[in-house]
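Example 148.
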Amino acid sequence: MPGLEDLYREIILDHYRTPRNRGELAPPAVMAEGHNPLCGDEITIYAQVENGVLVDVKVSGQGCSISQSSASMMSQAVKGKSLAEIQALIHRFKVMMSIEEDSDEAPAVEVKMGDLEALQGVVKFPVRIKCAILSWNTLLQALENASA
Ligand code: ZN
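Predicted structure in complex with zinc ion:
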């Protein structure tokens, strides 16, 4: 029986080889670009927000397997979610990456990590955390552009 680490590796490779929600969106969708110079990762996020819901999201870019699979998993996790749910998910992900402290307060909205749990091993490699978090910070930027 394969171990959890093998399973996680498979999930990451699957998203890297077959990225979900790949492409671009035309205006009125907004976009934001992120760059991780340490690794050379580039991510562009296109976001279409309607009535406080991220109705569509697309990802383009190139880089290492961690950056690209994280972006793919993120797009799958946030599509169709309310902005409040997305904020909660971003927080959970940053807690998993040891970037933000977990709060004692009960979360305002239920968050399911799904495939994203496959990235939890990344926290053992601090230099790769920047790869994993790139698409999330880029999404935040895109959502700020959407509300601007
Ligand atoms: Zn990278």
